[in-house]
Structure formats: structure tokens, C-alpha cells
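Ticket reopened. Same input as before:
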Amino acid sequence: MIVFKEFRFEAAHQLPRVPPGHKCGRVHGHSYLLKVSVDGEVDGELGWVIDFADIGGPVKTLVGRLDHRLLNDIPGLDNPTCEVLARWVWEQLIAQLPVLSEVAVWETATSGAIYRGQ
Ligand SMILES: Nc1nc2c(c(=O)[nH]1)N=C([C@H](O)[C@H](O)COP(=O)(O)OP(=O)(O)OP(=O)(O)O)CN2
Ligand SMILES: [Zn+2]
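Engineering reply: fixed in the latest deploy. New output:
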């Protein structure tokens, strides 16, 4: 069974390695959507894989480090593509949430990246 929880945050970024004139070379903002998934067995007594609150706790703390920031200022996010951000979120969470199975980041309604730890 896979369970997930979604989180939203607003942040600005700029992609420093795009070719000259690329729109993403300019500082701009996104309303990010982050989806954190956990894979596991459903506990026979509790009827759940994990309490959603146990996902929400560590992720909300992490989102607090991203919300209303310029992502480029955050260590490890100097080139904050969706792909880099999804892997960064995984790396920040995995110690506290070892049952983590997937991190998905939407930068726009139609564009995003999914990271599954490899
Ligand atoms: N593989 C990636 N490509 C792009 C990334 C990224 O992180 N990974 N990021 C961007 C920009 O940040 C851009 O803001 C979002 O891209 P895009 O989908 O092109 O945004 P639009 O809403 O402008 O696209 P539409 O064509 O209007 O849907 C670019 N590429
Ligand atoms: Zn962007």
C-alpha cells in the first residue's frame, strides 16, 4: 500500500546553468506542490500504513525552510531544478522518514519531477 500527503509552498528561483536568454535564467516564482509517499503494509489493528501526522511533522518543518525563500540561497539548491529539489527533499527526509518511497515536486500545474531514491 502506498500512502501520501501533499504540501504547498511558494518560492522563487532562478536556473543559473540555462543558456543565455532562457526564461528560467531570470528570477521568478512558483506555487510548488510537494507530494511525499510512503510504501508499507497496512497494520492489521490500526488499519493504516503510517499516521499521516508522522509524515506531516518532518515535512512541514522542511517546507518551512523553503516557503517564501529564494531557493538558490539554500545550501544544496544552487541550481534548483525540479529534479534537484526532489532529490534534495528526499535526502533531507530519509533519516527521519526511513519508510519514504517517493518524492514528487510540481513546479507548475503541468511540470514536475519524481524521485524514488535512485
Ligand atoms: N527538466 C526541467 N526542465 C525545466 C525546469 C526543471 O526544473 N526541470 N524548470 C523550468 C522553469 O523553472 C520553468 O519555470 C517551468 O517550466 P515550464 O514547464 O516550461 O513552465 P511554463 O509554465 O512556462 O510552461 P508552459 O509551456 O506554459 O506549460 C524549465 N524547464
Ligand atoms: Zn521556474
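The chain has one domain: 2-70+93-115. Residues 58 and 84 are 19 Å apart (CA to CA). Please confirm and we'll close it.
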